[in-house]
Amino acid sequence: MRSTVLVRSWSVSWWRNERGIVLALALVVMTLLMGVGSAALFSGYTNLQTSTNLRLGTRARATAEAAVNEALYRLSRQEGKPGAIAPDLTTANWQMQILSHGTANSPTQVATIQATGDWPHAASTPPVVVRYKKDASGSVIFYDRTRNPSLFPIALPAASIPDTAHPVIQILATGLDDREAQRQILAEAVGTTAFAPPAPLSSGVNVDLNGSGFLDGVNHDHRIVINPGSGNATIYGDNATGGTDEVTDSHSGSVSKDSPDDNKNDNVSPRACGNSGDHDVANPTLLPVTAPATPYASCARLFNMQISATATTTAAWVGLQWVGDPTHAPSGNTTYNCTIAPYNHSAAAHWHGTNTGYASAVALSSGPTVIRDQPPTSSVWTRGVFTWGKNNAINIGTIPGYPSSCSSGATLVCRPAQLTPFPTFQQFLGLDDDSFQNLLDNPDTTKADINAGRPPLGFTYIQGDFTFNNATASPGTADFGLLYVTGDLTINGNQTFKGLVYVDGSLKVAGSPVILGAVMVHGSTQITAGTGNMKLLYSRRAAELGIQASHPWRILSWEDTAMGQ
Predict the structure, then answer these.
(1) What tens digit of pLDDT does each residue of 175-184 get?
(2) Which residues make beta-bridge pairs with 471?
(3) What's this model's pTM, rounded to 2 decimal places?
(4) How far is CA 474 from CA 160, 457, 478, 495, in A?
(5) Would you state the pLDDT for residue 237?
(6) Closest CA to 535 of 321, 381, 364, 314
(7) Kind of pairing, strands 169-176 and 140-143?
(8) How far is CA 450 from CA 171, 466, 486, 519, in A?
(9) Which of 171, 331, 344, 488 fits 71 for a cystine, CB–CB 3.0-4.6 Å?
(10) How many other C-beta atoms are found inside a 10 Å radius of the C-beta of residue 395?
(11) Is 474 helix (H, G, I), strand (E, B) or coil?
(12) What are the pLDDT digits (tens) for 211-223?
């Protein structure tokens, strides 16, 4: 009996000592649940912060990308057009800033063309910087896909730059998020065009000059005033008898003086232009910069020594300059006296210099040739094939061994390696398949537009054959375009055009068009000048400005950096 009482007493005592265990267990469970909840809450908060950071970072990155795209667009805009950015190859320190806010107060600044709402935190965003990529020595890095290595330095200013080389442009753009933390993109871009048009006329087939056309390889200034019209009257300064528009260096008689190296009668042998009294001595007021100061031997040209009636000191030919004070002739950042030895120039104001960038008149791929050349029959040369100091006084077909260099001026016809095989339009522009198709899908002007009376502006894409007639409108003298015809192009009208014309098929000219820039004909049959009176004047810059309508830029590299506040 006693033992039973003891056991019961011990059990009751034990239960009495453990009476708070449920509370303790409850507290433990509650603590665990609170920990799990806190962990879940913290995880949710972290995920929210991460997604917020990602959203803000993405927005900042999008802002920076938009700034890079704006810079590329403005690099593709034609020089002189609103919003255009044109790199300056005369200095390695060229730089341009795109301001996200405020007013551009410097020649090295431009305001953004994006809407204010598209550029968050504009007031705090650093400007976009567009500049050349340079090496440690300060030389500009150029890209040439035909070379190995493709990247190499050139010190600017340079005496010459390969036609196939393009400077690498760095674009540094910054985007800000709501906390004003930065997202920075450094993109490197380059032009894609395979090479500059090597001559006013490049052809993959024979060229038949059965007409009275005028093909001139002298490198003309792209700003020469060309007005819609017909023949000589279309271009400023172009007349056969002199006139009131020739405001400088005019002379008496019926001989035209329409160009910087226009000429006078000369019966001294040998005669550079081939005929007696054929004006084969250059205007004595046009003198070379280097000694001795012997007038240039040349032949008559069609265009005035200045680009317009008002631009009296801007030469129509690249490289020439007007010297108002010969005792202080400009030379870079300094001056010199060109009236004394070794120059001995006139003390009166005059033009001097030499044409830079001139080319042969016709560039051919291997195989084709020029036939039925038509030299002038009179002493005033208003038709024929020309370049600086040379023309077709002797039929150009008799000149042997067409050189591979079109810029040497050795002959009037050249065969550059770039034209064999003759590049397709896509290959010439250097665009990949997607970019090229996008270009064709979004032309600025179509065949339907031209048929509706609109001029070929920007990139004009014509599928199949097309004929320009007198009803076809012409662009303005300040407009530069890129015209692409997949079939045959026939010109029966008197159109004017500045830029580049590329024809997949053949070219037939029976009208009197004036083209400043270059024409490239891949060719299915020969080019025929026919009975036309085409004026085709080489202007490398006008051709390049036309090519810009295709937006020929590509990204070489892209570096994306997130930067904390």
Answers:
(1) 887 767 778 9
(2) none
(3) 0.78
(4) 34, 9, 11, 6
(5) 59
(6) 381
(7) unpaired
(8) 37, 10, 16, 19
(9) 171
(10) 14
(11) coil
(12) 777 888 889 999 9
